[in-house]
Specification:
It is built from five helices and four strands, in the order βαβααβαβα. The protein is α/β, with parallel strands linked by helices. The chain has a four-stranded parallel beta sheet with strand order 2-1-3-4.
Length: about 160
């Protein structure tokens, strides 16, 4: 079974596309089959590439990033097993739009590690994007570790247990 995860922030040009790229990378390093996408609760940047600082930070760490911003859709709540919000505000927005028929587990991404939100780096400098990258890496590993312990059906594709 392929694991499916949607990472969500506000505009889908900073935190969530970086989180998408980092989670894919960390899962690939472990040999885990995964489908990852990202979206925003707002439609501010639909169709745009990630912020240039997001791209630069990922490139600096040799992480491939290829995404066009999109807004969360009702179908995402059925298409993804996990929907992970970057912060509490986006989590609340997701809870409001979540259809009754949702099958996705909806959580704050930070709940897998320290319950901390990912601060929005948009209005700051490159340092905020570096911190975002570090946090996305830690959260990706915490999320994958938790799944490994709780659900062996998502285990390694190249290195069976």
């Amino acid at each position: 079974m392929t694991l499916s995860v949607l990472i969500v922030c506000l505009g889908n040009i900073c935190r969530s596309p970086m989180g998408e790229a980092v989670l894919k990378h960390e899962a690939e390093k472990r040999g885990i089959e995964i489908k990852v996408d990202s979206a925003g609760t707002g439609a501010y940047h639909v169709g745009e590439l990630p912020d240039e600082r997001t791209i630069a930070t990922c490139k600096e760490h040799n992480i491939a990033i290829n995404h066009l911003a999109r807004q969360v859709q009702q179908s995402d709540f059925k298409d993804f097993q996990y929907i992970l919000a970057a912060d509490e505000s986006n989590l609340r927005n997701l809870e409001v739009i979540r259809p009754r028929s949702s099958t996705a587990e909806l959580r704050l991404w930070g709940s897998y590690l320290d319950n901390k939100p990912i601060p929005d780096p948009y209005y700051g400098g490159i340092t905020g994007f570096q911190r975002c990258f570090e946090q996305c890496t830690k959260l990706s590993n915490a999320f994958l570790d938790k799944l490994r312990v709780n659900d062996r059906s998502f285990m390694l594709k190249r290195y069976p247990s």
